[in-house]
Amino acid sequence: MRVRRGTDAAFDTATVHASRPPVNDRNTSSKRPRPPRRHGDDEDRLVWVWGAHAARAAVANKKRRVERILATRNAARDLGIDEARIEIVDPKAIDATIPPGAVHQGVAVRCTQPRAVPLSEIARKAEPGARLIVLDGVTDPHNVGAVMRSAVAFGAHAIVLQDRKAPPLSGACAKAAVGAADALDHVRVVNISRALEELRENGWLAVGLAGAGEAELSEIVAQSRERAVALVLGSEDKGLRPSVAAACDELVRIPISDQVESLNISTAGAIALYAFAL
């Protein structure tokens, strides 16, 4: 569904100034060739997760490697984490470590992103009533996190993200997800259209949300009670790309008042997920 771009800045923080190594000019020559990037590089890179719920979920997730846990004395008491693992610090120390203005609730965790699950593994789980989310070019970490939160709330078990374009599962995204980023399997793919083809070949019904969809959401929900459904949500400004829309089995719309042009992607996703969960 075509949605307006949110006003929140899409700033996330794989690395921040507090953790950068000193710059050595001799090792930063532009002539030095860079090694090729591997799929696992981003997952091995350390990121910051902040906020009480997000931090607890990140530490409990065995698919993450935790390097540091920073917390104020008051926050540490309520985390439910072995206090021997926590560095007790002043709130200002956390403020200096994460992006300005981030609401950390007195805790920040330095960890890797959770390991992605292969698409083939998720595609095989096309049991009746199974639900997953596919995001096509969604880049705002707040929207991605909010969609994850709704996905977990309404029983979806996985999310498919576009490799290199989706935000990391850290910082603003993890905070907006309120722990849900660590409760979902996540898949990273290069090509969303091809991913949908693979899902469909394995029995998934690909349903795209689009304002121009011929069918209403309620019609498709009624017809797909016993199907595994992949719900496809488009980017914040342009919606589904033509190639992705063409790869869907159905394009559906959520009927709304003429006084409103469109719904935010996370709101539209929550409505659709709730409808399929009924």
Explain the overall architecture.
The chain has 278 residues and is an alpha/beta fold. It folds into two domains: 90 residues, 60s Ribosomal Protein L30, Chain: A (2-Layer Sandwich); 159 residues, 3-Layer(aba) Sandwich (Alpha/beta knot), CATH 3.40.1280.10. 31% of the residues lie in helices and 19% in strands. The protein contains eleven helices and eleven strands. Helix 6 packs parallel to helix 7 and helix 6 packs parallel to helix 11. The longest helix is centred in the middle third of the chain and has 13 residues. The radius of gyration is 20 Å and the shape is elongated.
Give a quick summary of the entry.
With 278 residues, the chain is an alpha/beta fold. The protein contains 11 helices and 11 strands.
The share of residues in extended strands comes to 15-25%
Q: Structural class of the helices, strands and pairings? A: alpha/beta
Shape: elongated
What integer is the average pLDDT? Answer: 86
Largest sheet: 7 strands, parallel
Cα Rg? 20 Å
CATH fold name of the largest domain: Alpha/beta knot
Head-to-tail CA distance between termini: 21 Å
CATH superfamily of the largest domain: SPOUT methyltransferase, trefoil knot domain
Residue windows where pLDDT falls under 50 for at least 5 positions: 1-40
Helix and strand pattern: HEHEHEHEHEHEHEHEEHEHEH
CATH architecture assignment name of the largest domain: 3-Layer(aba) Sandwich
**How many extended strands?**
11
Q: For this structure, what is the CATH class of the largest domain?
A: Alpha Beta
